[in-house]
Amino acid sequence: MLTAENYGYSGIVQLPQDIELLRTQTRRLVDRDLRPRTLEIERERKIPEELVATLRELGYFGITIPERYGGLGLSTLAHAVLQEELGRAHAAFNMLISGNNGIGVMGLVLAGSEEQKERWLPRLASGEWIAAFALTEPNAGSDAQAIEARAVRDGDRFILNGTKHYISRGDIADLVTVFAVTDPATRARGGITAFVVERGTPGFRVARIQDSMGSDVIKQAELVFEDCPVPAGNVVGEIGQGFATAMRILDLGRLSLAARCLGTMEELLSVSVAHAKNRVQFKKPIAEQPAIQHMLADTATDIAMLRPALYTAASRRDAGETVTQDAAMLKLYASEALGRAADRAVQIHGGMGFMRDCVVEGIYREARMMRIVEGTSEIQRMLIARGVLEGQR
Amino acid sequence: MKILVTAKRVPDPEQKVKLKGNELDQSATNWQLNQFDEYAVETALRLTENASAGNARDGEVVVVSIGPKDVQQQLRSTLAMGADKAILVAGEDAELDAEIVARTIQKLAERDKPDLILMGKLAADSESNDAGQRLAGYLGWPQATFAGTIEVVDGGKALLVGREVDAGIETKKVTLPAVVTVDLRIVAPHAIKNGKTAKDHAYAEGPRYASLKGIMAAKKKPIEDTTLQALGVTAQKRIKTTTLEAPPARKAGIKVQSVEELVQKLHSEAKVI
Ligand SMILES: Cc1cc2nc3c(=O)[nH]c(=O)nc-3n(C[C@H](O)[C@H](O)[C@H](O)COP(=O)(O)OP(=O)(O)OC[C@H]3O[C@@H](n4cnc5c(N)ncnc54)[C@H](O)[C@@H]3O)c2cc1C
Fold first, then answer.
1. Is A44 considered catalytic here?
2. Residue in A17, A58, A62 closest to B209 by CB
3. Set of chain A residues whose Cβ sits within 8 Å of the Cβ of B70
4. How far is CA B226 from the centre of its chain?
5. What pLDDT does residue B239 have?
6. Which residue, A103, A126, A149, sits at the end of a domain?
């Protein structure tokens, strides 16, 4: 049942029974097996093997991959709810599966040929293989059209040269969706192509792991391609249409990120409430102090505003509508709201919130990336403003 | 083997209950499956599968609940775990007691003829611990309560049940059909031996998680809707609730300086020693 206590005001949006069941079952898994391990994962910088196996067995690597290829083919709404629930556990869980449910495989799902899907998707749906998405380069971040990686046709293959960086799961991925320039004259307008590159392809190597301020359980890596031969059969979608594909992938990714942020905010609120009720200063729980109450109220309000907006956008996408504008707004709002919520949570915990053995400390650091990845806040605002000026809403 | 499992929804034991007059405030209640019933479902699934051969099913598990329409949610979760079918007998908690529950399950058992009825040892809300015993009596079937282990013996014609009793474990052999109520340890890794799954197979501790696939498949599994009337239950409620009140709020504790002071206070103030 949805109650104010557990789900803010989500009662506004009544979810279908099967999605509610996905939620309660995932919640059970998160509460029983995943959440209790947060500090251990943070300390060991590793997800325990048995938990990865559990996620595999239960199907969490194949949430969005169509049933025909061994996945569940769940709706955007169902996926959002699952990510929200997983968002209450260590961020590494969502990061681990997000390539296989999102940016790493969406190119294949949206634009791949039947043969490519049959070849790669079942292994990704089962979690046997891990997928990554490689667009960003040292000289091309927000301006993704500026990528310099080159792919030159050579008979029935392409020769790939270039460097990608900050690639999540780059070090553990078995399959990477890589974007490279095939026609420097047209670039984003017909000159960028998407390729699937398998681990072990000659000339492809993980140059280094890039240590970050996050937990580094799931890492970012620099990938180098030197005269790397990629079969022409690995081109995803049409030659030259890679940039459009990348944008469609990121569109979906934004809703996902918003869902993850939402779940993490719920976790922050719940640990903050528990701490505020427990911590006694000046002879009473700090929860009785208006200053603390206001912080809790602000986070609760953000959660309550975000959830129905996310569910609505996800449902509209499931109904076939374009939600580019909504996805940008949700990603922007959720990542910034998470930043505020994490900051408040540290404040509510006081010195303890600054210490490594407190879960909010890790969340605070990890949360910072949400305003940068898959389009910075500035880029989201630019996209939203463009839509607004063009007359959308 | 065909197994009928009973399942009741109860208020989340972790949640502080809200009362409305002499009743639970239903709108403010988080419901979940009674833990022991969830264990009974797990037990039924372990008894009817070969976990050493990709969980190949061999048998049928039917879960029955008596309750309002919303209980569908809890029944679906048992279908998602792997049960084959569910039965929802319409009824409100306030109109039920162990007598009516036992009579209802009796009617269902006479109609569907299961080989085994599995129940939780008690429901976490009323903690009466008597529906199973009554049911076995009415059916005239052997019963084994508080099962911590179950082994299928005599070529599937009987069960060897390890019962959790005060003095330790009592082992009892019951011929089928029988009524068995389960205790906490029934979901330990080696608690169940069904003659198919390898004897040394270790299950994960606790009831299984529903896979995402199981959850989606649950949507298509049948839930039979029926009523006490349709089943021919004529029993009358024998227990009346006169008042329902929350336990008094706990008084704040005190800090003592020494063991001597503690002992003295326990003796003179708390009067417990
Ligand atoms: C943890 C993490 C994981 C990542 N995972 C992946 C991955 O899996 N795959 C992948 O391809 N990439 C990944 N990235 C890269 C990420 O997508 C980029 O970091 C991001 O797009 C920003 O690019 P940049 O770092 O080059 O910053 P820059 O583009 O250099 O931006 C610097 C600043 O300038 C601002 N700015 C830039 N252009 C404008 C403008 N036009 N108007 C206003 N402000 C502007 C930005 O908003 C930012 O504040 C990851 C990054 C991180 C941190």
1. no
2. A58
3. 1
4. 21
5. 85
6. A126
Sorted by where each begins, the domain ranges of chain B are: 2-268
Q: Which CATH superfamily is domain B2-268 in?
A: HUPs (3.40.50.620)
**Shortest CA distance from B15: residue in chain A:** A5
Query: Which residues have CB under 8 Å from A315's CB, separation 6+?
Result: A76, A77
Residues with CB under 6 A from ligand 1: A 132-136, 141-142, 166-168, 220, 369, 372-376, 378-379, 382
At residue A393, the pLDDT reads 64
Q: For B107-145, how does the pLDDT look when each residue is reduced to its tens digit (9 = 90+)?
A: 999 999 999 999 999 998 888 889 999 999 999 999 999
Q: Which of A226, A374, A378, A390 is catalytic?
A: A374
CATH code for position A231: 2.40.110.10
- Do A69 and A154 have their domain in common? no
When pLDDT is cut at 50, 70 and 90, the band that residue B270 belongs to is confident
Give residue for tokens 């059969």: A233
> B118 near B43, Cβ under 8 Å?
yes
Residues of A in contact with B15 (CB under 8 A): 5
Digit-coded pLDDT (tens) for A183-238? 999 999 999 999 999 999 999 999 999 999 999 999 999 999 999 999 999 999 99
Residue that terminates a domain, selected from A126, A145, A177: A126
- The token duo for A155 is 């008979």
Domain residue limits at A69: 5-126
Q: How close A59 gets to chain B, by Cα (Å)?
A: 6
ipTM entry? 0.89
A140 and A255 belong to one structural domain: no
Nearest-atom number in ligand 1 for the CA of A135 is 11
> Sign (positive/negative) of CA torsion A191, A192, A198, A200?
positive
- Ligand 1 mean position, distance from CA A277 (Å): 39
pTM above 0.95, yes or no: no
- Cα separation, B29 vs B11, in Å, equals 6
User: Both A305 and A369 in a single domain?
Assistant: yes
Same domain, A336 and A367: yes
